[in-house]
């Protein structure tokens, strides 16, 4: 067998190996995609809890989202789009300011999306972890706001 025939045989063997292994790899792809989506969802929720604590949302909405000056967030019926809109634009006539950087607020779009994701998937354990990392928010009196 000369050098050219060896190269052809190796190329053929590698092609057959790829033809066998690629479908086996693709069989597991939906599971990997699902796992990646779940991981991204969890990471977004964790970041949203950090935004909730670090921006001191709890001063108006309660440390566990139970509501104080502002409405309860834990168990809200609002969908994610409505939450994003409310956080971004604020609530005119109330103490709720516009938080979007597009409206001169301190939060970027991805932070607001993470916050809305957290609110829709509320987890007190994530709030507690964020409080340990950022410090618990200061308490405010119930008569201090305009909700």
What are the salient characteristics of this protein?
147 residues; mainly alpha; 6 helices; 0% strand; elongated
Question: Any overview of this molecule?
Answer:
The protein is mainly alpha-helical and 147 residues long. The protein has one domain: Cytochrome Bc1 Complex, Chain D, domain 2 (Orthogonal Bundle). Helix content is 60%, strand content 0%. It contains 6 helices and no strands. It has helices spanning 3-27, 29-54, 58-61, 80-89, 109-120, 124-134. Helix 2 (29-54) crosses helix 6 (124-134) and helix 4 (80-89) packs across helix 5 (109-120). The protein is elongated. The chain starts with a helix and ends in a 13-residue tail after the last helix.
Helix-strand layout with pairing:
Blueprint: H1 3-27, H2 29-54, H3 58-61, H4 80-89, H5 109-120, H6 124-134
Helix pairs in contact: 2-5, 2-6, 4-5
């Amino acid at each position: 067998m000369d050098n050219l025939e060896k190269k052809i045989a190796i190329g053929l063997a590698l092609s057959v190996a790829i033809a066998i292994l690629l479908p086996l790899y693709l069989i597991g792809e939906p599971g990997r995609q699902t796992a990646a989506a779940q991981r991204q969802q969890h990471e977004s929720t964790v970041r949203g809890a950090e935004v909730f604590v670090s921006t001191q949302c709890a001063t108006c909405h309660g440390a566990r989202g139970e509501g104080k000056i502002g409405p309860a967030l834990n168990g809200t019926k609002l969908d994610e789009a409505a939450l994003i809109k409310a956080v971004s634009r604020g609530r005119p006539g109330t103490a709720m300011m516009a938080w979007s950087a597009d409206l001169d607020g301190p939060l970027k779009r991805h932070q607001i999306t993470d916050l809305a994701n957290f609110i829709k998937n509320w987890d007190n354990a994530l709030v507690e972890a964020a409080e340990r990392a950022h410090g618990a928010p200061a308490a405010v009196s119930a008569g201090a706001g305009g909700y």
